[in-house]
Amino acid sequence: MKLEELFEGVDYEIISGDPGIEISGVQYDSRKATPACLFVAITGFKTDGHLFVADAIKKGAVAVLVEKEIEVPSGILLIRTANTRKALAFLARNYYGKPDCQLKVIGVTGTNGKTTTTHLIKAILDKAGKKTAILGTLYAKIGDIEMDLGRTTPEALEIQEFMSLCCREKAEYLVMEVSSHALDLHRVEQIQFHAAVFTNLTQDHLDYHLNMENYLQSKLKLFKMLEGDNCFSIINADDAYAESFREASREVRCFTYGVDQAAHVQAHKLSFSLTGSSFEYSYNGDQPKAIDMQLIGRFSVYNALAAITFGLAAGIEERDIAQAIEDLPGVAGRFEKVPSQQDFTVIVDYAHTPDGLENILKAARQIVENRLITVFGCGGDRDKGKRPLMGEIAARYSNFCIVTSDNPRSEEAEAIIADIIPGLDQVKNSRYAIIVDRREAIRHAINFGKKGDLIIIAGKGHETYQLVKDKVLEFDDRKVAAEFLKG
């Protein structure tokens, strides 16, 4: 590929070398550099790509894009730009032939509910006969092709590569989770979104964003990217930040959903059990339609409403929408029941924020027959402010809590737990145990279970590992729980 084609839309300066060379590929990871590729040196949070330029050149890179002053061997094309991470979004899109132009890309953002909502939207599109890909926390998937790209929203290069694959596989839609980090770090900057869906906004990632206003502004970027008569936004009218998202998407059609506040799609008569949820919804005041789905809890109703509203806005038949919602058995690690012959129930959930934990425990309180027992912890190297908040929430809703480790990363698990305890102690007569070893914590909870109890194991959900210092240890809450349940 010629340099001018690859750098379309990028402000850059050639420092040295021949700008007429052919570029065979683009890489930002020096370990993946290939002959005749362009290496993009990105300044990261833990390391700096500029330190690995020589490694990329040894592997065959013939051109280097930097944002700092750096020396390269003679014959290497050296290019400089103000922000290499931002430039990568342009380069990736140009290299892969602007695949977003051939897809209808649906972006789903919010603190909680992104994964379930994307799966519900995909189910609706599949039911309507639309070939649909999905990209998010669990995987990137199109048809029978499934891959793990490592993040909720990967870097621009991986996104554009996957979208190129989607085009080759003749997909019509791509439904993707869009994280606040991705929006702030320019990973999705050059994608033409067909629609944007907002689930909710509550405290999370303040280790990165520092405050809620910065967090909000990052999320709003997705809605400001929408343009064109065919684009539309879907917004949770019950969320405290709903008006900000309406304002951000004022250039396109806006559809709302809710339970408490007036909305285009309004839910009524909510009912919950251990086997699912039911509700009625009306669209613009029309005759109510009944939904009886397998997903559990009020938060699941909101996820379903977001997907229903998308389907209606996209012009999909209501019978297809309803059938898709009702047929979905669930999403991995999202209020997932661990199979058992015991007379109590064990649920594994990904909830790792104050709002996420409160949502699942509220749902659990509505359906539990006896005691609610909660096993949880907080991740290391992340927003410390949410630790006592989660402790207070767990104590307020649970009959008994077991505080344990949850991806402590570089921190000591005991220190993280010490940050959680003040929240637990805020609740009068709260009962809890501290068991640092997560396997032992799960074993204790299951051994403690009695008839009619509901045990919630929160924080990791679908994850199959535990991050301790620099090690990735095999660990799956569902497998561990299943093992003890059989015992």
Brief sketch in words of this structure:
The chain has about 475 residues and is of the alpha/beta class. It is about 35% helix and about 25% strand.
CATH third-tier fold name of the largest domain: UDP-N-acetylmuramoyl-L-alanine:D-glutamate ligase
Kindly name the structural category.
alpha/beta
Mean pLDDT: 96
The top-level CATH class of the largest domain is: Alpha Beta
Strand residue percentage: 15-25%
List low-pLDDT spans. Answer: none
Instruction: Give me the oligomer status.
Output: single chain
In terms of topology, how is this protein built?
Elements: H1 3-6, E1 13-16, E2 25-27, E3 37-40, H2 53-58, E4 63-66, E5 77-80, H3 84-95, E6 104-109, H4 114-127, E7 132-135, E8 140-142, E9 145-147, H5 156-168, E10 173-177, H6 180-184, E11 193-198, H7 206-209, H8 212-224, E12 232-236, H9 242-248, E13 253-258, E14 265-273, E15 276-283, E16 289-293, H10 298-313, H11 318-327, E17 336-337, E18 345-349, H12 354-367, E19 372-376, H13 386-397, E20 400-403, H14 413-425, E21 432-434, H15 438-448, E22 454-458, E23 465-468, E24 471-474, H16 477-486
Helix pairs in contact: 3-5, 4-10, 4-11, 10-11, 12-13, 13-14, 15-16
Task: Provide the descriptors you would attach to this structure in a database record.
487 residues, single chain, UDP-N-acetylmuramoyl-L-alanine:D-glutamate ligase, eleven-stranded mixed beta sheet, 3 domains, Protein-Tyrosine Phosphatase, Chain A, alpha/beta, Udp-n-acetylmuramoylalanyl-d-glutamate--2,6- Diaminopimelate Ligase, Chain: A, domain 1, six-stranded mixed beta sheet, 16 helices
